[in-house]
Amino acid sequence: MNVIDRVRIEAAILRYDFWLEMRGVRGSRRRDLRRELRTNLTEATADVGATRALFGIGSPKELAFAATEVDPSRPRWSQAAIWASAVFAIVVFGCLFTAIAFTAGVEASGVTGSTVRGSVFPWFGVDYAARVEPGRGGLAVGAGGIGTYFFGLPLLTFLLVAQPWRLLRRSRQTLPAAE
Amino acid sequence: MPPHDPQMLKGVLGLLLLSMLSTGENYGYGIVTQLRAVGFDDLAEGTVYPGLTRLEAAGLLESHLVRSDSGPARKYYRLTSAGRAELTLRRAAWDGLVASVETATSDLTSDATTHAAPAAEHTTGDPA
């Protein structure tokens, strides 16, 4: 087997492993499935060539999904981390955008030298404050209570995607087998 | 040989895999070549490997690693006692299905023959 074939096989195994991880398959099980696929692909490549061997397994994503249909999955930590990070980024962007818009509004109203407070949709419970100094002497902006959004929403997303209650389901499934 | 219907193949995949392993233990690609040798050329590896994983998860197969000279260690599968029992059940179910289908299709064939006969007579009588 030449280097290119080896790289193609490893790339397929890497994609397979990624989707197994996304499906919440635990590490040791993933290692087993990876090793088995590597063996089968190596044998098939020696027999019919890498192109036909890789064509035979089809999409690594679908293969991973088909291989884990009956697997008692662990919580999907990786997928949850990706989604929680995305939600965090959206919340930060939204908060900054709102703060800039709020400050621009205060500046446009011509109020200077005093702090203007207010709530902005959809940030319920967040107290936006902006202060524009006279003669363009500077501005200050703040958002009180935004921490709930910064940490609460990503945490909620993390829990909903990860589904930690899968641990309970797994222990219930493994209990009769142990007995 | 005409290509097999993928849906039909999906329905009998478990039976095929259990039957292949009833003759002795084998590993993933070995089973694929075994199936191809008996006429299942269109059965993709992407169908066989998850099938083996599912049967193993169901307790019908057990596996062990065997060192290979040609590459990484092979994962060999063999039937468990539950797997043998399941194979017997599935064979009986398959035989029953084949018998029913044959009865139904032979009835259809005879019906088609009896219905076709007058039509043939009519056709032959037409030019006159």
Automatic annotation (TrEMBL), chain A:
<keyword id="KW-1133">Transmembrane helix</keyword>
<protein>
    <submittedName>
        <fullName>Uncharacterized protein</fullName>
    </submittedName>
</protein>
<keyword id="KW-0812">Transmembrane</keyword>
<feature type="transmembrane region" description="Helical">
    <location>
        <begin position="139"/>
        <end position="162"/>
    </location>
</feature>
<keyword id="KW-0472">Membrane</keyword>
<feature type="transmembrane region" description="Helical">
    <location>
        <begin position="80"/>
        <end position="102"/>
    </location>
</feature>
From TrEMBL, chain B:
<feature type="compositionally biased region" description="Low complexity">
    <location>
        <begin position="106"/>
        <end position="122"/>
    </location>
</feature>
<dbReference type="InterPro" id="IPR052509">
    <property type="entry name" value="Metal_resp_DNA-bind_regulator"/>
</dbReference>
<dbReference type="Pfam" id="PF03551">
    <property type="entry name" value="PadR"/>
</dbReference>
<protein>
    <submittedName>
        <fullName>PadR family transcriptional regulator</fullName>
    </submittedName>
</protein>
<dbReference type="InterPro" id="IPR005149">
    <property type="entry name" value="Tscrpt_reg_PadR_N"/>
</dbReference>
<dbReference type="InterPro" id="IPR036390">
    <property type="entry name" value="WH_DNA-bd_sf"/>
</dbReference>
<dbReference type="InterPro" id="IPR036388">
    <property type="entry name" value="WH-like_DNA-bd_sf"/>
</dbReference>
<feature type="region of interest" description="Disordered">
    <location>
        <begin position="106"/>
        <end position="128"/>
    </location>
</feature>
<feature type="domain" description="Transcription regulator PadR N-terminal">
    <location>
        <begin position="17"/>
        <end position="88"/>
    </location>
</feature>
